[in-house]
Design brief:
Blueprint lengths: L3 E4 L5 H9 L3 E4 L7 H7 L2 E6 L7 H6 L5 E4 L9 H6 L3 E3 L6 H16 L2 H11 L4 H7 L10 E5 L3 H12 L3 E5 L5 E7 L5 E7 L3 H7 L2 E4 L11 H6 L4 E5 L8 H9 L3 E6 L10 H4 L4 E3 L8 H20 L1
Parallel strand pairs: 1-2, 1-3, 3-4, 4-5, 6-7, 6-10, 10-11, 11-12, 12-13
Antiparallel strand pairs: 8-9
Helix pairs in contact: 1-13, 5-8
The structure holds nicotinamide-adenine-dinucleotide.
Nicotinamide-adenine-dinucleotide (NAD) binds next to helix 5 and helix 8.
């Protein structure tokens, strides 16, 4: 008999097709949290796939004996009682590397935009582009190039290393700091199957702060901010900082003050201390390039997530 997989928070078309091709009975439908236990039992569901919207807690695990697998499309599993499920011999899977390249590209989307002030001219051109074209041309004519500049990567895991590949590809020098990695080989792959290997060595944290033209952060959630007034002041005058990791890793009040006094030229944030209601001082700050926590959210990443989930489910449930 076909095993049933409930896709409760959506999946890409290719992921769904792959599950169907692998002979699973797929229910692609959002069931409200309060109705989940009954639905799972009535449909004898073997695997439940969620993103961040659905909670899979002890109540579901205890009351739905048919569940053999819980899958999270994406990384964080705060919405699943992982240890409890594993103790009950339920497989719990996620897709930790499927979106690393997407986050890395968002870093460069912000960085190129800050280097030429396009994030800012996109705010002013609609308002005064026809009246004050020459004034704006002058205002935005002090951009910089990224080639030949230094980028500092704090946290050199999956995303940090994807950032390094793009940086090396466009001619930047890469410094990294990560307490667990001393040396790392980075393979930069080109479209024609050529690969260039770079051997990188960990930098001292202060040296990285002091010498880089741009700093980007790729570390897990921390108990307290890693970038505060002290670290921002150590950074090179006129440099850029980007946070696409987790809100609270940069102290936002300290960031605003270092932007105001001109020490930091501009910042880019995809994540915020107060999510999903970032502070107005951050949203209205003209020196911050903003995005609403979309680092992982590309169509390609959704496809990779779907395919990776389908492959893992096939291995675990079909052997
Ligand atoms: P990873 O586990 O592969 O790498 C994290 C690295 O950070 C590890 O090598 C670790 O040693 C290092 N690290 C931990 N604490 C550190 C510190 N204080 N200083 C320097 N390095 C430190 O994780 P990843 O896949 O590269 O993801 C990094 C983070 O990006 C995730 O934890 C997540 O919070 C965030 N993320 C954001 C989005 C988004 O949509 N913006 C999407 C995916 C992931």
């Amino acid at each position: 008999m076909k095993k049933t997989i409930l896709i409760n928070d959506g999946i890409s078309k290719v992921g769904k097709k792959q599950l169907i091709d692998l002979q699973f009975n797929v229910i692609d439908k959002h069931i409200e949290q309060s109705a989940l236990i009954d639905f799972i039992n009535e449909n004898n569901v073997t695997g439940v796939l969620v993103r961040s919207a659905t909670q899979i807690r002890k109540d579901i695990i205890d009351n739905c004996p048919s569940i053999k697998l819980i899958g999270r499309g994406g990384v964080g599993m705060d919405n699943i009682d992982v240890e409890y499920a594993q103790k009950k011999n339920i497989h719990v899977i996620n897709t930790p590397s499927a979106s690393s390249a997407s986050v890395a590209e968002l870093v460069f989307s912000h960085l190129f935009s800050m280097a030429r002030d396009t994030y800012h001219s996109n705010r002013t051109m609609p308002l005064e582009g026809d009246m004050n074209f020459k004034k704006l041309k002058k205002q935005y004519s002090k951009g910089t190039e990224l080639r030949g500049k230094k980028i500092g990567i704090i946290g050199f895991g999956k995303i940090g290393q994807e950032v390094a590949k793009i940086a090396l590809g466009i001619g930047m020098e890469v410094l990294f700091y990560d307490p667990t990695i001393q040396k790392q080989i980075i393979n930069v792959d080109f479209y024609n199957n050529q690969t260039i290997k770079f051997k990188l060595e960990k930098s001292d944290f202060s040296i990285l702060l002091q010498n880089c033209d741009a700093i980007t952060i790729h570390i897990p959630k921390q108990k307290k901010a890693v970038i505060t007034k002290t670290e921002l002041k150590k950074m090179k005058k006129g440099s850029f900082i980007i946070n696409t990791s987790r809100g609270g890793i940069i102290n936002e009040a300290d960031l605003i003050s270092q932007l105001q006094n001109g020490h930091i030229r501009s910042a880019a944030l995809d994540v915020y201390e107060n999510e999903p209601t970032p502070k107005l001082e951050i949203l209205m700050n003209e020196q911050i390039s903003l995005s609403p926590h979309i680092g992982a959210a590309t169509l390609e990443a959704q496809d990779r997530i779907g395919i990776e989930l389908a492959e893992q489910i096939n291995t675990l449930l079909n052997g």
